[in-house]
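Team,

Forwarding the record for the chain on the shared tracking sheet. I've put the sequence and predicted structure together so nobody has to dig through attachments.
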Amino acid sequence: MTIMTYANAALEAIRQSMQSDPTVWCVGEDLGRGGVFGQYKGLREEFGEARISDAPISEAAIMGAAFGAAMVGTRPVVEMRFADFALCATDELVNQIAKARFMFGGQSRAPMVIRKPMGLWRSSAAQHSQSLESWYVHIPGLVVLCPATPQDNYSMLKAAIACDDPVVYLEHKNIWALEGDVDFDHQITLGEASTRRTGADVTIVSWSNTANLAVEAADTLADKNIDAEVIDLRSLWPWDKSAVLDSVRKTGRLVVAHESVAVGGFGAEIVATVAEQVASSLKGPVRRLGAPRSLIAYAPNLEDKMRVTAEMIVTAAQETFE
């Protein structure tokens, strides 16, 4: 075990992947100076300009060039800096990359990782703070991952780079400095959820940074004699239906919490699946937490109105007993 930050765990995953596979390379803005968040620090010096490639300020050009490189046998790691900025390359991602294997009858593929730092982060306002994971889950052909811990940011990024399908990789900007144990030998299978805490009374399902808040909420609930089970999906597509359904069958109660807007959010898919398949197991009302359908303000007091907090998760869990 090594104690690392969330950012450095991803850095190490890329370093090891590049060391073991010469077809892995990185492209994006500011990579030569280590990336806007330092998540590529030292890689240019180790691997050179050809594999840590600085790109001009054109997300569409970055995504398109990487797609072409992926189709001829390399494995690009594409840095979009912010999930919001990646919208400039949506056509390349949605209409080309996601459809490549299908359109060419399996003769070609696009094994590439598209890193999109997401989420609320110290007054970054409406164009730098969005959580858009549900958009990409809706697109056939894309794998969608949302790591919440340093260990997962290491293991999931290595698995994403090795994946033969395009991966939308959403890292939460507010936890770059989050520290935790990282086991370099730990491997995961994409699509498997992580049970962060076992419990018998209520199931809390979440992902990204909100999953960390869910663990905090579960600790508070324990003091209130409520034994909560916390499932961190980690992977939104594919997602681990069996882990969620088995947990709800056990607890009979469900809270789904995520930072992204509640309207049309992936939480609704989870709730619908539970309603369709294990409704008879429910002992109380289902609760779904997400941001209001509003733009994210710069002012901290207004930004806070968009946040799903541990306290809100505690309250929602208690309401499932009503």
